[in-house]
Amino acid sequence: MILYQYRCTGCGHSFEALNNIHERDTAVCPVCAHLAEQQIAGGHFSLPGTDTAFPTAADKWAKRHRRANRDNLIDLGLPVD
Ligand SMILES: [Zn+2]
Questions:
Q1: Which of 31, 36, 71, 73 could form a disulfide with 8 if both were Cys (CB 3.0 to 4.6 A apart)?
Q2: Which residues surround ligand 1, an ion (CB under 5 A)?
């Protein structure tokens, strides 16, 4: 069972409901019992890592760039990790 987002075709009510992946296209509206269609969610996104307000993403970004620049850091005599 996966949580899906639905919008009622009768009253426009939006709601979330658990549904089987094979029956995810439609659900019954809890307000008016009309047919509701699945809504497409916002999808996956990743933070750029340059905003320090998100420390985990910022650490991941820094680690990835240090790893990519490892040879340059060694050439410059700077510490590597
Ligand atoms: Zn409805």
A1: 36
A2: 8, 10-11, 13, 29, 31-32, 34
How many angstroms is it from 22 CA to the middle of ligand 1? 22
| Full-model pTM | 0.51
Sole residue written with tokens 């990519």: 68
Contact 63, 75 (CB under 8 A): no
Q: What are 45-65's pLDDT values in tens digits?
A: 777 777 778 788 888 888 888
Under 8 Å between Cβ of 28 and 22? no
In the reported structure, the alpha carbon of residue 27 is separated from the centroid of ligand 1 by a whole-number distance in angstroms of: 10
